[in-house]
TrEMBL record:
<dbReference type="GO" id="GO:0016787">
    <property type="term" value="F:hydrolase activity"/>
</dbReference>
<dbReference type="InterPro" id="IPR029069">
    <property type="entry name" value="HotDog_dom_sf"/>
</dbReference>
<dbReference type="Pfam" id="PF13279">
    <property type="entry name" value="4HBT_2"/>
</dbReference>
<protein>
    <submittedName>
        <fullName>Acyl-CoA thioesterase</fullName>
        <ecNumber>3.1.2.-</ecNumber>
    </submittedName>
</protein>
<keyword id="KW-0378">Hydrolase</keyword>
């Protein structure tokens, strides 16, 4: 299995006055997608720092529009994770129903100790949970 897929239905509230999905909602959708992925692998972002001695703070996010998305569109978002030694990168590709790419992007999270907020190696159990979704 490579990547994690989810469908985002663009709502009217996600759009600007021209009916096109706007920047802040796409950022929210990226965050929501990584939340869903981490929940799927058994490490919900909202529980990690409570249940373990590390967190995964966001250190970088970026995306590029390829084509507009309108209210009612069903967008399939694929996340492909890449495991670093102390970081985790999610690459995103979003496609509309005809398969055309609507945006691409990425986010990077660093593994940080909850004791002193310094970076640390990704735990083995987290690596093992994410590895099946990587490109290999």
């Amino acid at each position: 299995m490579t990547g994690f897929k989810r469908t985002w239905t663009v709502r009217f509230s996600d759009t600007d006055p021209f009916g096109i999905a706007h920047y802040p909602r796409i950022v929210d959708t990226l965050h929501e997608s990584s939340d869903m992925f981490m929940e799927e692998v058994g490490f919900p972002l909202w529980e990690i720092s409570l249940d373990y001695d590390f967190g995964l703070p966001l250190v970088e996010i970026d995306f590029e529009f390829e084509r507009p998305m309108e209210a009612g569109d069903n967008i399939e978002i694929t996340i492909t994770p890449t495991l670093g030694t102390r970081s985790l990168r999610f690459d995103y590709v979003a496609r509309n129903e005809d398969g055309a790419v609507t945006f691409t992007g990425h986010e990077t999270r660093v593994c940080a100790s909850t004791d002193d907020v310094s970076s640390r190696d990704l735990p083995v159990e987290l690596r093992e949970a994410i590895e099946p979704y990587t490109e290999g």
